[in-house]
Structures are given as structure tokens and as C-alpha cells.
């Protein structure tokens, strides 16, 4: 399809926007339920992002694909750690998790934009 690349780019962009919106929730909320819902949405967005390559990576570029997946896996791991913190009541540690997620996101954008 001619519009296939646009659709993939739009879907990837939407996943990135979901991550950004929910990182804002993590920064502003102290409600466990709200935090867990935000983290679940972020986890889903990362899963969706793993199904789509950014335009800067050609489908034949195995190394690029692997690097991209590794960056997303780092983010997914940090999301899981943040969930554990929320579940165990360590809400004061969430800003540190958000900082780590932001750092991973920025590094990923630098590599793949």
C-alpha cells in the first residue's frame, strides 16, 4: 500500500504520545490506581511500538531492528520496576523512575530519528 509507511509512522507517533501523556500522570499523581493505569497504558504503548519500526530503520537492517527493540525493552523494564514501586507503596521513588524513563526515551529518539 502506498500509505502503509504513513500509517506505521502515525501509529508509532501515537504510541510515543501515549508514553508522554502517561509520564505526565506519573509526575503529577500520587493515586496508586491512577499510577498503575498509566503504567499499564505505557506498557501497552511499548508493546505496540515493538511491532513497528521507525522510518529511519529499513526492514533489512537487523542490527538497527535489534537496537530499537533493546531500547524499548529497557523502557519496558523501567515501567515494570515503577509498577513494583507503586504496588509496594514506594511512591516517593516514582520521580526517579520517570527520570530514568525520560533518559531512555531521549536516547532512543537520538538513535532512531
- What is the count of DSSP helices, taking H or I runs of 4+ residues? 4
Terminal-residue CA separation: 23 Å
Shape: elongated
Q: How many DSSP-defined strands?
A: 0
Strand proportion, as a percent range, falls in under 5%
Q: What CATH architecture label applies? A: Up-down Bundle
Low-pLDDT residue spans? none
Average of pLDDT: 89
Question: What is the helix content?
Answer: over 70%
Per CATH, the superfamily is Cytochrome c/b562
Total tally of structural domains: 1
Order of helices and strands: HHHH
- CATH topology: the name is Four Helix Bundle (Hemerythrin (Met), subunit A)
List the helices and strands and how they pair.
Layout (H helix, E strand, L loop, with lengths): L3 H25 L3 H19 L11 H26 L6 H19 L1
Helix pairs in contact: 1-2, 2-3, 3-4
Write structural notes for this entry.
The mean pLDDT is 89. 79% of the residues lie in helices and 0% in strands. It is mostly helical. It contains 4 helices and no strands. It has one domain: Up-down Bundle (Four Helix Bundle (Hemerythrin (Met), subunit A)), CATH 1.20.120.
Amino acid at each position: 500500500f502506498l500509505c502503509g509507511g504513513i500509517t506505521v509512522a502515525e501509529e508509532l507517533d501515537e504510541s510515543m504520545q501515549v508514553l508522554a501523556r502517561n509520564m505526565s500522570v506519573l509526575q503529577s499523581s500520587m493515586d496508586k490506581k491512577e499510577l498503575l493505569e498509566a503504567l499499564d497504558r505505557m506498557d501497552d504503548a511499548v508493546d505496540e511500538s515493538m511491532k513497528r519500526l521507525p522510518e529511519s530503520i529499513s526492514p533489512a537492517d537487523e542490527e538497527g531492528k535489534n537496537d530499537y527493540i533493546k531500547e524499548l525493552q529497557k523502557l519496558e523494564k523501567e515501567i515494570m520496576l515503577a509498577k513494583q514501586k507503586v504496588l509496594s507503596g514506594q511512591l516517593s521513588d516514582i520521580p526517579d523512575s520517570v527520570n530514568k524513563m525520560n533518559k531512555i526515551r531521549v536516547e532512543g529518539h537520538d538513535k532512531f530519528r
